[in-house]
Specification:
173 residues; 6 strands; 31% strand
């Protein structure tokens, strides 16, 4: 049996301006997700947890906490973009363009806007991406641009830290 590497994420060299990465599966937001996040962040806006009030609003139902929407979309984009990043440099132009409701499923796609080698860190580069979250109907609910430092493939810090098993499953030919 041979050892097969898992997905390690993209390194600086793997990014090309104009590439688009679409996450292959979505994330459905539950009422528990929305309530817990709202309570965790001490957000007291009743549109996130008072069904009676929300039903009387122009939306007619609970709205998902927009900070939760941002967090989920960023998290879903990590495996395609910043799995090997060591620092976020900034987010800008965060736009909430369509309401997100409990029960909606979010999907994420990211486009590479730019990249450059770091002037101060020879083991890394800076990548800028635009990410957007779409609901199950294809409506863009959220978009933003983000830049981050990402390791180059041969960076010393990115060498495997997986311990050597005392009993190996891999054939040693």
């Amino acid at each position: 049996m041979a050892l097969q590497e898992g997905w390690l994420g993209r390194y600086y060299e793997d990014f090309a301006v104009g590439d688009v990465y679409q996450r292959p599966y979505g994330r459905t937001i539950s009422e528990a997700d929305n309530t817990w996040f709202t309570l965790l962040t001490l957000n007291t806006n009743p549109m996130h947890f008072d069904t009676n009030l929300a039903e009387k609003s122009e939306f007619g139902q609970l709205l998902v906490n927009s900070a939760l929407t941002v967090a989920i979309v960023i998290g879903m984009s990590v495996s395609d973009t910043s799995q090997n990043a060591f620092a976020n440099l900034g987010w800008k132009e965060i736009k909430l363009t369509h309401p997100v409701y409990v029960g909606d499923t979010l999907y994420v796609e990211t486009r590479v806007l730019g990249k450059r080698e770091s002037k101060s860190r020879d083991h890394a580069g800076i990548v800028e991406v635009e990410t957007r979250g779409l609901n199950q109907h294809g409506d863009v609910c959220l978009s933003f641009t983000r830049s981050f430092y990402v390791y180059k493939r041969q960076a010393r810090d990115m060498q495997s830290v997986f311990p050597t098993p005392k009993e190996s499953w891999v054939d040693e030919d």
